[in-house]
């Protein structure tokens, strides 16, 4: 770049008047101002608001509802009706959706909790994860239809961003059902395994548990250290004159937010404070993109087949365009499909360099009492429930 | 929500030990943490970096290059070769693209300037805006192909986010060519009209200029106050002992960044510091969506026509799926098309309530000397030029 220079020795230049902003140039010296771009993005995101869809899965009584209420300081299951033993015999896996609008420091979050009551509770649980997988696929399909449609202005995005999967502490590690569930779903959704009711395990027992999560490729660094177990409770107890959330036993108080007792705080930090946006981005960029690519591949193959069949029967030589990939011919399409097949896309959480993951074997326990502990900064605006049962 | 309560009178609870984090609960009291979401978005946007594509249009010599260099404190036209009178006779409108990576306070911006040398310079300028409109459409088309394709990981987005259109100060307002240009393009791109070389006009002359920009629906509030004129200069002169960018005349110094002299600062504030992200969002959500809807409508109509023709000739009754709108049948598709046709989408910049627009008739003057004035915070990383001529 050339060096700027003033006219220097020329004598006829008179300093002009500065009626206002005399120091403007000095203040803004050599500052274009595009450094404000992240702030523009920040402001627009606050104005628009956020949404997050969290799925909880695992057998009844492991404290799924309590953990969710503890995490978001809300009461999502006010009108929940627990089934009696007789009713449970005929119960099938259903999917329920609770949505709540919460606000904190001016930031609005539309939180949707997708629950799977009845999961793993039957005598024969063969393919009971199927309705969960179907639900996730249906949301992808709906979004694919919407984003391929004409009017994309008010698309409602119901894609599941994260699934907390609850593992029983009594199984000496993973049971076959757990393995099957995670095998079936880990390429569709970000799974965070939770070791439930961990206050029945001493630290030694926790450490000696064998949890071969080999198939879980969530993040390289935490490959060996998940699942993580957290203690949740919505009951406030007194400890050392302070009111803390925890569980009161004759032998002591389990404090939920004490990281020596459990790693509830670590889970919350990951899920809400540092990686909520990451979980959304991975859902959008990896899980959804994989689903979409498979869809397009089958559609393209179908159309190519149709076209070839029609070439034999039709009289006119007009060709149909291949849908969705405008401009690509047969060979290009097949090449793209091959490339895509070869490219194994695994879910991979983006690693923020300033945040070092430190997930040990964490302990979690989930209290049965689902009392809400709603703070002042949490404003409930609306709450509605939508229930979907598989046909 | 129910009120949380401790066990109260039960006597056997002992306060537990607090080996670490004794104040954790108090510090984080009733704070979930999703208020960090905008910061997560902020951090990710900085990490990813930004891009912006700015088009400049207007006849030669109005100072387009100087204004761009003044705005971004860079030197985008180092290797520009000015044509002589003979060469200009055969010159047609071409489109050149300059890209520069600049950085400011850790924020990276990939700035692309699309220039239109030769625009309006010929004897007969009939439809000389056509190559500009074609260029914009081509970028939309390329993006439509890319976002409809299988692999959407590394899409390069070349859509034009803003067009600075330079109006000559000698025309007593808009000339027919100006009107035709803006009529043809204002539904494809955000146009910001610039009154060039405004230091040839006194404030009274500026105010009396008739500029009927009725067709420009950029923003309701500024409907009456655009175009705005700005003075640009890359030459540093001394005024009152201070070094400022400006133009030195025997009768005084025109200071570029003095808002009593001109509104260069206002243009820069709008374009870079407050509404750069808005211009990108309007391009994406309105201009591109309109282009895409028209594309889909023609494709759908074509396929429906094909299908009907084939129904007469084909023996098999198999139907082809309509491309791009999976699941929609003929009637739905036609209904959607009708709805879309009825919905007149006009470009509309989002109004930030905290930012009140204050565009008067601004004065701009564009110095001829295209000297770069590159500050310390501007780091040039790469620069490449790509030239595209219409066939």
Automatic annotation (TrEMBL), chains A, B:
Domain Septin-type G: start-end pairs: 48-298
Source taxonomy: Eukaryota, Metazoa, Chordata, Craniata, Vertebrata
Annotated protein name in UniProt: Septin-type G domain-containing protein
Family listed: Belongs to the TRAFAC class TrmE-Era-EngA-EngB-Septin-like GTPase superfamily. Septin GTPase family.
Compositionally biased spans, kind Gly residues: 1-12
PROSITE patterns: G_SEPTIN
Residues covered by region (Disordered): 1-24
Keywords: GTP-binding, Nucleotide-binding
Keyword Cell division attributed: no
A Pfam family annotated for this UniProt entry: Septin
Species annotation: Esox lucius (Northern pike)
PANTHER family: SEPTIN
GO molecular function, one term: GTP binding
């Amino acid at each position: 770049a050339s060096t700027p220079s003033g006219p220097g020795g020329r004598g006829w230049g008179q300093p002009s008047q500065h009626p206002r902003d005399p120091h403007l140039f000095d203040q803004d010296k050599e500052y274009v101002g595009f450094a404000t771009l992240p702030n523009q993005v920040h402001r627009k995101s606050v104005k628009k608001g956020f949404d997050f869809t969290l799925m909880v899965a695992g057998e009844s009584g492991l404290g799924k509802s309590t953990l969710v209420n503890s995490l978001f300081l809300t009461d999502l299951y006010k009108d929940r009706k627990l089934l009696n033993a007789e009713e449970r015999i005929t119960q099938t896996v259903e999917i329920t959706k609770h949505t709540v609008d919460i606000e904190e420091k001016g930031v609005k979050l539309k939180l949707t909790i997708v629950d799977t009551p009845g999961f793993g509770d039957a005598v024969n649980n063969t393919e009971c994860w199927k309705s969960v997988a179907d639900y996730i696929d249906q949301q992808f399909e709906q979004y694919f239809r919407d984003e391929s449609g004409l009017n994309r202005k008010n698309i409602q995005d119901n894609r599941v961003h994260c699934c907390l999967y609850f593992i029983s502490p009594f199984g000496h590690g993973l049971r076959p059902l757990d393995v099957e569930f995670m095998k079936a779903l880990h390429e569709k959704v970000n799974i965070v395994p939770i070791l439930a009711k961990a206050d029945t395990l001493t630290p030694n027992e926790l450490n000696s548990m064998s949890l071969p999560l080999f198939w879980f490729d969530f993040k390289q660094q935490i490959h060996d250290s998940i699942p993580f177990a957290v203690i949740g409770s919505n009951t406030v107890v007194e400890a050392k004159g302070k009111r803390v959330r925890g569980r009161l036993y004759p032998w002591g108080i389990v404090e939920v937010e004490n990281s020596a007792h459990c790693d509830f705080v670590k889970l919350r930090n990951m899920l809400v404070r540092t990686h909520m946006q990451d979980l959304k981005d991975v859902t959008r960029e990896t899980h959804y993109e994989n689903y979409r690519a498979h869809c397009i591949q089958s559609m393209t193959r179908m159309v190519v087949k149709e076209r070839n069949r029609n070439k034999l029967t039709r009289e006119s030589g007009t060709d149909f365009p291949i849908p969705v990939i405008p401009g690509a011919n047969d060979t290009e399409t097949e090449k793209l499909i091959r490339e895509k097949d070869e490219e194994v896309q695994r879910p991979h959480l983006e690693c923020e360099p300033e945040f070092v993951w430190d997930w040990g074997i964490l302990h979690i326990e989930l209290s049965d009492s689902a009392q809400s502990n709603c703070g002042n900064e949490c404003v409930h605006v609306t709450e509605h429930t939508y229930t979907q049962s598989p046909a």
